[in-house]
Amino acid sequence: MKNLDVEINPAELGDVPIYPPRRILRDFLPVMLKTWLRTRFSLLPASPREEWVLKSLMLRVFYNVYRATELLSVTPKPFFASELPKQDKEYIPPKGWN
Length: 98
Description:
This protein has about 100 residues and is an all-alpha fold. It has one domain. It contains 2 helices and no strands. It has helices at about 30-40, 50-75. The chain is elongated and about 75 Å long. About 0% of the residues are buried.
């Protein structure tokens, strides 16, 4: 499956077009047949449309991670996330609760 390996450069993900490229004939083959040909005979390299799908997926992942880190930095920490004051004595439950 060396023909199917797609190298994705994170620096070039911003250049991914909005719309996918036109389908070619091999895009209309059933997935079961494509998988069999790729695993058995190492045929059918990735089509431009399949490359676009992978790049747009990676772009979406990077964008969502960026948004999540931004939101986490803005969100205030809950009060119990801070350090709790140390107690002088160890807590011993009452005898009736044992």
